[in-house]
Design goal:
Blueprint: H1 17-32, H2 37-42, E1 48-55, E2 59-60, H3 64-74, E3 79-82, E4 89-90, E5 95-102, H4 103-132, E6 141-143, H5 153-162, E7 176-178, H6 180-186, H7 189-199, E8 206-210, H8 213-221, E9 226-230, H9 234-244, E10 249-253, H10 261-267, E11 271-273, H11 276-279, E12 286-290
Helix pairs in contact: 1-3, 1-4, 3-4, 4-5, 6-7, 8-9
């Protein structure tokens, strides 16, 4: 599996404990709104058990703290042991995390804990594949988008960072990004940029989406700081880099596949944003075995 270790010298911003608990309780509420009939009917109260999570394929580990916290939401006495670090590349069959405590708590929280960890690990694994496709020494960033699962953006963005990627704007108030419909409503590229510059905070850069080289020229003339090249072919991306001559940061988005990453990075773009990091990442195959 490519990417045997996390990116060197990269500190990943973690998710705070309050957010972890909120995510865990949200997942548990879905499963336990009417109790756990199967567990309550078959397992005596006070029974102690231990269990471990096992990777069923090669993957980039992510979500251990959330996995353990989900069990602890039902019983604070549950102990958790992480056998892998966030961002570790693990092999099929490797034990990721261990928990022990009240058997009823372990059984009732099992599915919620796995769901969250599988989503996080799936996104981290997907992201690592794209990051590993960058040419050695490349300064191009692999970046996510807002195409996240409602309610899980915090988790998925964290998983992107664990996988070695970077985050785009977190929400609509975080940055100015003028897309096709903004441009239409504003009356054109130059009008949209002019209006945005008048109203946006002085600390905010202006990014605008363009769909061809003529629109790129208009955006550069209007002094956009960042230009998103939307659904450009590889050849047009190379022309765009030459045309821009460093006058703006260039972001490539739309139709990005793993196979395109080396050429796009070699062309000299600054950012490659990929919705598939989150919206199309398959959940990692992780099983939980109780004893």
């Amino acid at each position: 599996m490519a990417g045997e270790s996390p990116p060197a010298n990269r500190r990943v911003k973690t998710v705070d404990n309050l957010a972890i608990e909120q995510l865990a309780r949200l997942a548990l509420e879905e499963d336990l709104r009417s109790g756990d009939l199967s567990t309550e009917a078959s397992v005596a109260g006070g029974t102690h058990a231990a269990g471990h999570a096992v990777a069923k394929s090669d993957m980039t580990c992510c979500g251990g703290a959330l996995f353990g916290a989900t069990f602890r939401c039902l019983d604070p006495r549950v102990s958790f042991e992480g056998l892998t670090a966030e961002g570790d590349s693990v092999r099929s069959g490797q034990v990721l995390w261990k928990v022990s405590g009240d058997a009823r708590a372990l059984l009732s929280a099992e599915r919620a804990a796995l769901n969250l960890a599988q989503i996080a690990t799936g996104v981290a694994t997907q992201t690592r594949r794209y990051v590993d496709a960058l040419p050695r020494g490349s300064k191009t960033r692999i970046v996510d988008t807002r195409k996240t699962t409602p309610g899980l953006r915090l988790l998925q963005r964290y998983a992107v960072r664990v996988g070695g990627g970077h985050n785009h704007r977190d929400n609509l108030g975080a940055a100015v990004l003028l897309k096709e419909n903004h441009i239409r409503a504003a009356g054109g590229i130059e009008a949209a940029i002019r209006a945005a510059r008048q109203h946006a905070p002085h600390t905010s850069k202006i990014e605008i989406e363009v769909t061809d080289l003529d629109e790129l020229a208009s955006a550069l003339d209007a002094r956009a700081e960042i230009v998103m090249l939307d659904n450009f072919s590889d050849e047009d991306v190379e022309r765009a880099v030459t045309q821009a001559k460093g006058r703006a940061l260039l972001e490539v988005s739309g139709g990005i596949t793993l196979e395109r990453i080396p050429r796009l990075a070699a062309a000299g773009v600054d950012v490659i944003s990929i919705g598939a990091l989150t919206h199309s990442a398959p959940a990692a195959d992780i099983s939980f075995l109780l004893r």
